[in-house]
Amino acid sequence: MECIFCKIIKREIPSEIVKEDDLAIAFKDINPQAPVHILIVPKKHIASISEMKEEDENLIGHLFNMAREIAQELGLSSGYRLVINNGKDAGQEVFHIHLHLLSGRKFSWPPG
Ligand code: AMP
Ligand code: ZN
Fold first, then answer.
1. Which atom of ligand 1 is nearest to the CA of 85?
2. Which class is domain 4-103?
3. Which of 10, 26, 45, 103 could form a Cys-Cys staple with 76, CB 3.0–4.6 A?
4. 80-83 β-sheet, strand order
5. 92 lines ligand 1 (CB under 6 A)
6. What is the pTM of this model?
7. Annotated catalytic residue 100
8. Per-residue pLDDT of the chain (112 residues; tens, 9 = 90+)
9. Which of 91, 98, 106 minimizes the C-alpha distance to 39?
10. Helix or strand or coil: residue 34?
């Protein structure tokens, strides 16, 4: 069975898409943890950062550049947090790499 983010990429299940190019897609998180909560997802299925290969480094960098562009477009000038959960103990629930872009409120540190 294919993963849920691959299905979103193929438009097999709906999502609120914010930005898309040939390498990645960004859509609104279904269970937002902040006023702005967007997931930036490579179109290539890679389960986690632990499973990325050296050849994927430009693709992963592309996710951060897309986050920067979205933040600029949304005017998130007072700050935002970028998060990648890797593995069960870090809270990863969907095993297709995704970068969380969170903004619109203050975040504490250290994270919970
Ligand atoms: P993580 O815990 O880092 O694996 O994050 C997975 C995220 O995917 C969570 O924040 C979920 O709310 C989000 N999510 C799960 N299913 C969907 C969906 N169908 N559309 C949008 N976001 C989703
Ligand atoms: Zn996938």
1. 3
2. alpha beta
3. 103
4. 17-20, 24-28, 36-42, 99-103, 80-83
5. yes
6. 0.98
7. no
8. 689 999 999 999 999 999 999 999 999 999 999 999 999 999 999 999 999 999 999 999 999 999 999 999 999 999 999 999 999 999 999 999 999 999 999 999 999 8
9. 98
10. coil
